[in-house]
C-alpha cells in the first residue's frame, strides 16, 4: 500500500505542465479572429500528456534539458526509434492499408484515377516476389547494336546507371535548369562480385564464363588499370575542372567517342551541335576512352552487367536485398523511392488533400512571419556588411520557397495523366522495376531539353526525388540549395510535430523551429554561397573579409562541433523562431516551458547520422545559446544550460 501511494504521488508531481495559464487562442496572430475556429482543447491536452510521458520532470532542466524532456523516451520506444522515424513508418502503414483495401475493392472509385491502377499492379508484383533471380534484370535489357563498350553503357544509362567508364548524367544545375554532365567514372566505387551476381552472369551468358575466382581476378585487373587512369596526374585535384562545352566542341576535343550517338542512345533525342554540356577533366576522359577502345570488349561488357546488377541491388529499399522484414512495408518503401511522384499523388489524394488548405494557411503564415523577422534582423546589419552583399542576402530571404508534401504546385489531373502515360507496368517485378527507372530518367532527360515554360515551371516547383536518393536526406524536412526551396515531407505534417489545431506554444515550438532551421541553412557556412536561383556566388569570400562574421563562425567552430553548418542552422534557426514567437513577456512566462518541450520532441531518440549530431547534443547546445531558455527555466548562471559565454551567428 505505501508503495502504491508513493507511485501516485510521483505521478501527480510528474504533471510538470500546469495548463491553466497557457495561451489557448487558436492563433498567435490571426488576421481576423472572428472567423477563426476555436482549437480543439482535446487535441492539445492529449498532446501535452504525450509530452509529459517522455519527460523526467524530477530532473533539473538547467543541467541537461534533453534528459529532462526526453529522458523517458527510451522506456517507451525501442532503440533506433525517433519521433521522425515513427512518423515515416506511419505513412508507410497508410500506403499498405490503402493498397490492401483497393485490391479487395475492385469497384472503388480510386481505380478510375491516374496512377492508382499502375501502382496497385506494381505493388502486387512486388508482394509476389520469391527469392531473387537477378538474371531477370539482364533479360529485360535491350540488346546492344554492337559489343562496343559505349553501346551497352548508354543502354544502362537509360536506367540511371552511370557509375563506371564514362559517366553521362543529367543533373540539376540551378533552380530552373538541369544540364548534361560528362565525367570520368568515380574510381572510388568498385565491384564486389558476389556469388549471386556471378550466377546471374553465368546464366545470361549460357555458361560461357571463366570461374568466379578467375573472373574476380580479371575484373580486379581492369579496375586497377581504370583507377590509375582516372587519378588526376596533378595532385592539385581540388581545382574546379568542370567546364562548359558545346556538343560540337566536345566532339572535336574527344573524337574517339561518338558523343551524338551516345547521347541519342541514352537520352532518346538527337542533340544539336550547339547543345551546352558540362564536362569534367577532358585529359582524363581522353586517356580513358583510348584505353577502353583498345581493351577486351567482352570483358568490358561483362563488367558492365555485373556493375549494373550491383547498382540495382544497392538502390535504397530494393526488396530483393531486404527479404527479412514484412514484404508489404518493404514494397511500399521501395515504391516511395522508385515511384516518387505517383506515390505522392496517391498520398495526396487519399490522405493529405483534406488537410492541405488548412495547413497551407497556417504553415505559410508562420513561414512568412519568419521571413519578415529574418529580413528585419538582416537589415539591422549587426555584422556591418556592405550594402550590395546585404541586398543579395535579403533577395535570398525573399526568394526562399516552401513546398508541403513536395508536390508540383497547382498541377492539373491532366498533368498526372500525361505523366503516367509512358510508364509501363505489368505482372513481373523485375520488368516493372526497370520500367519505372526508365520512366524517371526519361523524364529527367526530357526536362533538361524542354523549352516549354509552363512545363518547366511545374517541374521546378518541387524536388523530383530520384530512385537513388538515400533515406536520411529526404526523411525529414530539408533545404535544397539548388532550388532554394524547403521541402516538408508528409511525415512532418502530423502529430507529434504539428497539428492545425495546436495552441501557439505547440505550433511554434516545433514548426517555427523546424522552418527556422531549414531557412537558416540558406545562410549557413556552406549554402550561403548559392543565390535565390541556386546559382553559386562568392558570398562567403565576401563574408570572410568581415571580422564580426569571422568571430561568429569561430565561436561556433569549437572542438566539439560535428557539422559546422548544422550547428549554425540550429542556433540561428532557434533564435529566429524564438524572436518570432516569444515577443511578449506574458507569453514567455506562461508558455515558455511548453514551447521548449515541444521543440524537444523532434530530438527525442534522434541518433547521429552523416550530417547530424545526436539529438541530445543538438538540443542542449542550441538552447544553451538562448538566454530566453535560462529565463524560462530560471537557470542559475554558469549551469550547463546557462553558460557565461554564448555564441551567436545570424
Ligand atoms: C495569447 O497571445 C496573443 C498574442 O500574443 C494575445 O493577444 C492574447 O491576449 C493571449 N491570450 C491569452 C489568453 O493569454
Ligand atoms: C541556370 O543555368 C542556365 C545554364 O547555365 C543558365 O542559362 C541560366 O541563366 C541559369 N539561371 C539563372 C537564374 O542564373
Ligand atoms: C574518393 O575518395 C577520396 C578519399 O576518400 C575522396 O577524397 C575523393 O573525393 C573521392 N573521389 C570521388 C570522385 O568521390
Ligand atoms: C561482398 O559481398 C559479399 C556477399 O554479398 C559480402 O559478404 C562482403 O562483405 C562484400 N565485400 C565487400 C568488400 O563489400
Ligand atoms: C578456376 O579456373 C582456374 C583456371 O582455369 C583454375 O586454375 C582454378 O583452379 C579454378 N578455380 C576453381 C575454384 O574452380
Ligand atoms: C598540372 O597542372 C598544371 C597547372 O594547372 C599544368 O600546367 C600541368 O600541365 C599539369 N600537369 C599534368 C601532367 O596534367
Ligand atoms: C556556360 O556558358 C553559358 C553561356 O556561355 C553561361 O551562361 C554559363 O554561366 C556557363 N556555365 C558555366 C558553369 O561556366
Ligand atoms: C555518330 O553517330 C551519329 C548518330 O548515330 C551518326 O549519324 C554519325 O554518323 C556518327 N558519327 C561518326 C563520326 O561516326
Ligand atoms: C497556385 O494557385 C494558387 C491559387 O490559385 C496561387 O495563389 C499560387 O500562387 C499558385 N502557386 C504557384 C506556385 O503557381
Ligand atoms: C507546353 O506543354 C503543355 C503541357 O504538355 C501543353 O499543353 C502546351 O501546349 C505546351 N506549350 C507549348 C508552347 O508548346
Ligand atoms: C573550423 O576549425 C577547423 C579546425 O580548427 C578548421 O580547420 C576549419 O577551417 C574551421 N572552419 C571554418 C569554416 O572556419
Ligand atoms: Zn539541418
From TrEMBL:
Its main location: membrane. Residues 1-16 form the signal peptide. It is a single-pass type II membrane protein. GO terms for biological process: proteolysis. Its cofactor is Zn(2+). It comes from the Eukaryota. Residues 62-405 form the Peptidase M13 N-terminal domain. Its EC number is 3.4.24.-. Residues 485-648 form the Peptidase M13 C-terminal domain. Belongs to the peptidase M13 family. This is Uncharacterized protein. It comes from Drosophila virilis (Fruit fly).
Amino acid at each position: 500500500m505505501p508503495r502504491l501511494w508513493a507511485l501516485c504521488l510521483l505521478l501527480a508531481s510528474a504533471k510538470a505542465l500546469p495548463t491553466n495559464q497557457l495561451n489557448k487562442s487558436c492563433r498567435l496572430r490571426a488576421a481576423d479572429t472572428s472567423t477563426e475556429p476555436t482549437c480543439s482543447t482535446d487535441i492539445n491536452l492529449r498532446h501535452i500528456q504525450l509530452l509529459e510521458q517522455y519527460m523526467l520532470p524530477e530532473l533539473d532542466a538547467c543541467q541537461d534539458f534533453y534528459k529532462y524532456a526526453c529522458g523517458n523516451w527510451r522506456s517507451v520506444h525501442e532503440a533506433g526509434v525517433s519521433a521522425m522515424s515513427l512518423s515515416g513508418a506511419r505513412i508507410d502503414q497508410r500506403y499498405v492499408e490503402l493498397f490492401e483495401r483497393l485490391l479487395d475493392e475492385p469497384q472503388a472509385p480510386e481505380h478510375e484515377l491516374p496512377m492508382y491502377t499502375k501502382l496497385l499492379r506494381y505493388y502486387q508484383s512486388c508482394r509476389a516476389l520469391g527469392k531473387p533471380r537477378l538474371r531477370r534484370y539482364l533479360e529485360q535489357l535491350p540488346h546492344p547494336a554492337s559489343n562496343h563498350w559505349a553501346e551497352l553503357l548508354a543502354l544502362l544509362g537509360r536506367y540511371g546507371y552511370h557509375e563506371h567508364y564514362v559517366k553521362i548524367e543529367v543533373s540539376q544545375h540551378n533552380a530552373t535548369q538541369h544540364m548534361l554532365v560528362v565525367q570520368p567514372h568515380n574510381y572510388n566505387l568498385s565491384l564486389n562480385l558476389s556469388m549471386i551476381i556471378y550466377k546471374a552472369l553465368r546464366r545470361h551468358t549460357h555458361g560461357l564464363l571463366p570461374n568466379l575466382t578467375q573472373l574476380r581476378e580479371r575484373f580486379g585487373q581492369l579496375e586497377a588499370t581504370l583507377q590509375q587512369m582516372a587519378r588526376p596526374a596533378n595532385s592539385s585535384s581540388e581545382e574546379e575542372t568542370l567546364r562548359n562545352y558545346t556538343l560540337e566542341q566536345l566532339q572535336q576535343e574527344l573524337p574517339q567517342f561518338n558523343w551524338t550517338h551516345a547521347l541519342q542512345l541514352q537520352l532518346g533525342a538527337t542533340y544539336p551541335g550547339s547543345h551546352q554540356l558540362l564536362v569534367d577533366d577532358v585529359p582524363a576522359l581522353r586517356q580513358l576512352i583510348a584505353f577502353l577502345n583498345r581493351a577486351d570488349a567482352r570483358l568490358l561488357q561483362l563488367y558492365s552487367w555485373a556493375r549494373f546488377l550491383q547498382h540495382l541491388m544497392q538502390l535504397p529499399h530494393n526488396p530483393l536485398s531486404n527479404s527479412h522484414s514484412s514484404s508489404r512495408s518493404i514494397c511500399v518503401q521501395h515504391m516511395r523511392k522508385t515511384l516518387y511522384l505517383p506515390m505522392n499523388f496517391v498520398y495526396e489524394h487519399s490522405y493529405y488533400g483534406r488537410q492541405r488548405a488548412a495547413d497551407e494557411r497556417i504553415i505559410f503564415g508562420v513561414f512568412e512571419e519568419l521571413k519578415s523577422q529574418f529580413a528585419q534582423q538582416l537589415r539591422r546589419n549587426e555584422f556591418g556588411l556592405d550594402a550590395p552583399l546585404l541586398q543579395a542576402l535579403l533577395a535570398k530571404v525573399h526568394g526562399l520557397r516552401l513546398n508541403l508534401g513536395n508536390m508540383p504546385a497547382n498541377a492539373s489531373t491532366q498533368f498526372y495523366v500525361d505523366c503516367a502515360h509512358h510508364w509501363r507496368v505489368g505482372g513481373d517485378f523485375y520488368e516493372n522495376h526497370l520500367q519505372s527507372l526508365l520512366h524517371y530518367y526519361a523524364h529527367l532527360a526530357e526536362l533538361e531539353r524542354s523549352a516549354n515554360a509552363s512545363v518547366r515551371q511545374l517541374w521546378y516547383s518541387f524536388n523530383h526525388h530520384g530512385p537513388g536518393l538515400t533515406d536520411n536526406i529526404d526523411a525529414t524536412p530539408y533545404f535544397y540549395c539548388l532550388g532554394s526551396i524547403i521541402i516538408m515531407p508528409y511525415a512532418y505534417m502530423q502529430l507529434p510535430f504539428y497539428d492545425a489545431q495546436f495552441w501557439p506554444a505547440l505550433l511554434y515550438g516545433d514548426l517555427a523551429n523546424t522552418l527556422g532551421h531549414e531557412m537558416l541553412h540558406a545562410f549557413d557556412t556552406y549554402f550561403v554561397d548559392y543565390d535565390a536561383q541556386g546559382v553559386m556566388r562568392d558570398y562567403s569570400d565576401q563574408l570572410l573579409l568581415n571580422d564580426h562574421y569571422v568571430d561568429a563562425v569561430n565561436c561556433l567552430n569549437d572542438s566539439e562541433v560535428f557539422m559546422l553548418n548544422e550547428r549554425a542552422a540550429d542556433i540561428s534557426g532557434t533564435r529566429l523562431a524564438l524572436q518570432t514567437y516569444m515577443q511578449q513577456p506574458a507569453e514567455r512566462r506562461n508558455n515558455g516551458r511548453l514551447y521548449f518541450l515541444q521543440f524537444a520532441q523532434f530530438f527525442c531518440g534522434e541518433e547521429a547520422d552523416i550530417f547530424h549530431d545526436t539529438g541530445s547534443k543538438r538540443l542542449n547546445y542550441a538552447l544553451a545559446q538562448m538566454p530566453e531558455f535560462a529565463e524560462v527555466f530560471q537557470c542559475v548562471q554558469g549551469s550547463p544550460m546557462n553558460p557565461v559565454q554564448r555564441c551567436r551567428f545570424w
